[in-house]
Each structure stands twice: as C-alpha cells, then as structure tokens.
Design goal:
Oligomer: single chain
Low-confidence stretches: none
Strand content: 5-15%
CATH architecture: Alpha/alpha barrel
Distance between the termini: 28 Å
Strand order of the largest sheet: 1-15-10-11-12-13-14
Helix content: 40-55%
Largest sheet: 7 strands, mixed
Number of strands: 15
Shape: globular
Radius of gyration: 22 Å
Number of domains: 1
Mean pLDDT: 94
Structural class: alpha+beta
Length: 467
Amino acid sequence: MNDSIQYPRRSRVPSDAFGFETLKTATAQLLSWQQGPGDFGGLHLHACWDNDSSLSRKYHGASVSRTSCIYEGVRELAIRSDSRKWRYLADQIIASILWYQSPEGGFFHASGEAEPTYTSQESCPIHQMRPVLALLSHYQDADVSDLVRKEIEVALERHLKWFQSHWWQLGNGYVRPLPNAGWCGVTNQDLVAVVALAKYGDVMGDWEPFHQYGLPTLEMYLSPQYFHDHTGFFERGDNANFTERCSYMCLIVNMLDQLHSIRPDVRIPVVIDRVVSVLQKAVYIDENQDTQMSLGLDDAATQQSGVLVWDRQKLQLGDYAEFIQLFERFGKGKDGMEDVILGLEKTLAQYVYADGMIPTTVDASRPLFSIVSGSYNFINFWNFLLKRNSGELDWDSLPSLPIIRRRCGNMEFIADRDQWLLLRDGREVFHGVKRVPHGIVAFGEKLANDPYQLPNAGGFDEVVEIN
C-alpha cells in the first residue's frame, strides 16, 4: 500500500522541511535529470506568465541560464567537500556552458520557458548574462587550469563583442529601439547585464565595457524614469505603467547588492532598503491564516488611488525561498520582519513534496503548476537548502528517489528516478524520460526503444488540496 500525504501539511515545521534529509532528496532529484556531462534537464514552467508551452514542444532539456544557477550550488558543494565528484561536475558544467556558445558569440538554448531555441538571437539579456557570471566565478577558482582560463577568456571576449553589437538599445515589443541606455529595456534583465560587466571588470581588469555600457544603464535604472521612490518599485519597461512583479524585485535587489559589493555606490543601499520595506508590505495573511506574498502592485488601482494596492494572485509560492533569504539578509531590525520570515517559512514548508520538489505555485485554476516544480523554482529551492544546511554532502549517500503520484484537481503527475507521466482527467497527456532532452511524447505516441515501465505500486500518493 502506498503512503498517502495531504498538502498542505499543516503540521510540517520548517526545520524538518528544510533539513539535511530534504537536501539529500532534492540533490538526488537534480542528479536524476542529468542528461550529459554538465547538462541537466527539467520542466520549463513559468507561473507568472502562465507558460507551460515547452511541453507541447516536447522539450525538457537544458537551458544554459538555469545551468548557470546549478553551477552555483555544485561549486558550493565542491568547496565544502573533498569529493572529486562535485569538483568534476563543476568543471563539466562550465564545459557545457562553453559548448552552448554559438559561433557568433552568444549562447543558444538560452531562453528559459521558451525552450528549445537553437540560435543566440532567440534569447534575452538575463539568459545571456547568467552564463557569463558563472564563467567569471569559475575563472576565479584557484584550482582552474591555465588552459581552461584561456578558453574562458576567449569565450567572454567573443560574447561581450556580440552582446553589445546585437543587444545594445535593441529594446522590446513595447519600445524598439530604446531611446536611452540599455539593452532590452526591462529592468531585471538589464541589471543582470550591468552586474556581469562589473564583474568582468573586477575579474579581468577590463572596465571599458562597464563604463561604456553598464554605467550609463545603471544611471538610467536608478533614475526616476524607472525607479519610483514613492512606491519603492521599479518600472518594468515593456509596457505602459507596468511595474516589476515582486519576484523580479527580489532579483533586482540581489543584482544591486552584487553590484555594490563589486563597485560601491552610496545610492544602492538606500534603494535596497526602500524596496525591501515595500516588499514587506506585499506580505499578507490569507483566508486559511497562511502567510502569502502578493504577485505585485495593481498598477492601475495604485495610480488611481495614490496608495499601494496589491495584486494578490497566489503565483509566487515557488519563489518563497528567495523572499525568505532576501528578508533575512536585508530586513534585520525592521518591525514585524521576524514574523514575516517565519510565516513564509511555514507556508513553504507545508508544500515540500516527498521527492524534494516544491510547487511552481498553488492555484486551483492552474493544477499543473500546483503539482509540478518549474525547473528554476526547483533549482532556487535547492540552492536555498544548501545555504540552510552546512557541511559536506556525500554523493554516494544520496537516497533513491521515491515513486510519487501527485494529484490536484483533474491533473496527476507520476514520477520516479527515470521518468514522469502527466495525466488529465485520468488520461495520459505527456510522458517523459528524464535523461533525454527531447524525451517527451504526447498521448498515443511511443518513445523508440523505451525500456521504462511506470511502476504501479509503492511510493507516495500525494494530494494537493486548494481551498
């Protein structure tokens, strides 16, 4: 008989949900998606934009920006451990990132939820510059050989030349070309590029790209045109009167903090403090007495009323680990912040699944997102677990992944170490083999030479209930 678990698990405490055993299970989950040396797949879901279209394109392979986020955690494990396996995996991830560089200099498979994409033009600044940050971090590692450093140097020179020629003032669907400094004109995206150029100057000693492109862009985004001090939010930039959503504000704060650590700027701590204070106001208690994070501002209502009005769609739960870390780092001493952090921890802890995953969001109208972890949400949660649990993680002591059957509404997700199955109204919709980037088939199709049979006994039955 299967063990049955109901979600939310009201009795689950954060110390248990975020403990070392969960880290081990989540790490086993990550490694089950390895598709080659340094390559990891995952389900490309984006709750904010209600996007699951990569499933219909039958792709659950790598996206180089997410690969860069995996590198951060693997590098941390390599630093903590004497195990050669984590060090070797970090080297493989960097080799994979270098392989995804196209001849013109940009990265392909660099589009997140729009995957698969096969040219560097089908991308955006954030997905182009996260790999740059990973390459620069690896370059600083004392154990990296001169040969690898040279390969990174050449790759970065090619990439930055291409990036400026292709993206500078290109703009977006709302404004094209940009009339001011910037690349795509979206705050969170362009600030990642600013940080990458600052880190390039710091590591490589070449500050010209930052001064020519990065600094004018930073000045633009810190100006009243983008940063609205009266609300504490940044204008997004790809639509009229449209501010960044809370999850992107979290990313912006982290980018500004990284920039300040590289190149101190007295304005940045002031902006960060203002943003964090306003994000604290975005937290609320819902009808179930759970602590939740608003999606963002209701811009029209805020503009009309002159006070902050929040859009309280519950689409952020997959990002709660990042909000918790943000408030822990920048919210010390703020009245009520300890209660906010504890509340978000308790809410997230209720939805840590038996296979180490978390939901992309919890929303009755989006049952798929409630039972499946979007790949970025999962990797960010895994990195959160790494920070919560110190000490070495022995590769060889990782547990076997359990079989899970997770249901919400009319959707069901079945998975084990090797494969996954998605059903709607009891009928198979998609079946995927984790080790194969294009290893997804739709109902009625078969994978060639598919050796796997979905188990029909054992594991966990999980039911996600949404009031």
